[in-house]
Amino acid sequence: MTTPPLPTRRQEDWRYSDVEAVATVWPLPQPIRIAVGAGETASHRLLQDAADGAVAVHDYEIDVADGGRCIFHLLNIGGRLGRVTFRVTLGKGAHFGLHGAMIGGGEQTLEIVTNVIHAQPDGTSEQIIRSIMGQRATGNYLGRIEVARDAQKTDAVQSVKAMLLDRTATANAKPELEIYADDVKCAHGCAVGELDRQALFYMASRGMEPALARGLLLEAFVAGVFDDIADEAERDRFEETAIARLKALAGQEGAA
Question: Residue 202, Cβ neighbours under 10 Å: how many?
Answer without folding.
Answer: 12
